[in-house]
Specification:
Blueprint lengths: L2 H27 L14 E7 L5 E8 L1 E3 L14 E3 H26 L18 E3 L9 E3 L4 E6 L18 E3 L13 E3 L13
Antiparallel strand pairs: 1-2, 1-7, 3-4, 5-6, 8-9
Length: 203
C-alpha cells in the first residue's frame, strides 16, 4: 500500500469518526422521551453541514424503522407513510433549508434598495446559503463555496436504497452491548461486511 493511500484512508476514518461522534453526541443530548426503551432498537440518521474551516454542525436528525402497511396508505397527505430514520431526517433537513431561505429572504428584503435595482448580497458567513448570483431575479439559492452537506446513517438503508447488490449482508450489534448503562446502546451500528470490502456512503 502506498503512503498516499494510507493517508487518504486515515483521513477518511478520522472524518467518519468526527461525523459519527458529532451525531451521537447530539442524539445523547436530547431528552429521553421518544428514545428506545428496554429491548427496543432504532436507526439514527442525520444531516450535517461542514463549513470551509471544516466545523461540523448537525442540522437535521431522525430515528425510526417503520412504515405503514399498504392497506393504511392515505391519498390525502394526512398520514406520514414512511417513518424510517432517513425519511424523518430528510423532512427535518427540508425544514432547515426553508428556515434558512426564509431568513435570507427577510434579511435581503430589509436591505433591498428602494429604487428597484438588484438586491444587495447579504454577507453572513454563518449561513451556508446565498442567493444564486446567476438567478438573482428568480430568488434561487445555492450553497456557499466551501460548505458541504453530509449524511450519516447508523445502519445501511433497506429497500430500494439498500446496497445489497453491491455489499454482502452486514452484521449489526447494539452499540454499548458490553456497557448496559450506555445511552446509545439502542442504536444499531454496522460492522465490516463479511467479504471485507470497503463500504461507501456510510458517512
Amino acid at each position: 500500500m502506498s503512503m498516499a493511500s494510507s493517508v487518504s484512508s486515515s483521513e477518511e476514518t478520522s472524518w467518519g469518526k468526527r461525523v459519527s461522534e458529532k451525531v451521537l453526541s447530539f442524539y445523547t443530548s436530547l431528552p429521553k422521551k421518544g428514545k428506545p426503551q428496554g429491548r427496543e432498537v432504532t436507526v439514527l440518521a442525520a444531516f450535517l453541514l461542514s463549513s470551509p474551516s471544516n466545523d461540523l454542525k448537525v442540522v437535521a436528525l431522525g430515528t425510526g424503522t417503520k412504515c405503514i402497511g399498504r392497506s393504511l396508505l392515505r391519498p390525502y397527505g394526512d398520514v406520514v407513510h414512511d417513518s424510517h430514520a432517513e425519511v424523518i431526517a430528510r423532512r427535518a433537513l427540508m425544514r432547515f433549508f426553508y428556515t434558512q431561505i426564509q431568513h435570507l429572504t427577510e434579511t435581503s428584503s430589509k436591505h433591498a434598495p428602494s429604487n428597484g435595482s438588484k438586491r444587495l448580497k447579504i454577507d453572513d458567513g454563518n449561513l451556508a446559503f446565498e442567493l444564486d448570483p446567476q438567478c438573482l431575479n428568480k430568488g434561487k439559492y445555492t450553497m456557499r463555496k466551501g460548505w458541504k452537506l453530509h449524511m450519516y446513517i447508523s445502519q445501511l438503508p433497506c429497500g430500494d436504497a439498500s446496497l445489497s447488490s453491491v455489499v454482502s449482508p452486514l452484521e449489526t450489534v447494539p452499540l454499548g452491548e458490553s456497557d448496559s448503562h450506555s445511552p446509545l446502546g439502542k442504536i444499531l451500528l454496522p460492522l465490516v461486511p463479511v467479504d471485507g470490502s470497503k463500504q461507501k456512503g456510510m458517512v
